[in-house]
Design goal:
By secondary structure, this protein is mainly alpha-helical. The protein has two domains: about 120 residues, Ferredoxin Thioredoxin Reductase; about 40 residues, Single Sheet (Rubrerythrin, domain 2). Helices cover about 40% and strands about 10% of the residues. The protein is built from six helices and five strands.
Amino acid sequence: MSDTASEEVVDRFMRDLAREAEAGGYHLNPDWEFTRDLVRGLLANLERYGYISCPCRLASGDRDDDLDIICPCDYRDPDLADYGACYCALYVTADVEAGKRAADPVPERRPPPAERRRQKEERAAVPGTLKYPVWRCRVCGYLCARDEPPETCPICRVPRDRFERFM
């Protein structure tokens, strides 16, 4: 982080991130000093690359190559579902935030570069295919494409069990 990213900038970014997370049904890590360090890393990557890549992974500097690790990364939701936190532990589940359970260690899900290129080519070869299933909130109609429905609907705040697979 350069001298231009002051603590005021870090505080503002943290507030914005917390507001966006909560609005989307997500939770930031309640260890605020730890979270501040992650935010500093996000801001350093923003300055370095022009986008907020995950502070716990090595970005290439090629935005197209790094799309999967731009925060929030593609692996956040499956990590939350399986381990209670994302890889860098910026995002946690409600149980972890409330101190009801500890997050488990999260293994790296990001495939090596050759595998990512192969997956990208496969998706491009089959037009109209979706990478993730689509889930619909039965209460408000909110749609999202991901492996599992969100913990809480970001629109009407109902729990995950109120979602149905849409496509």
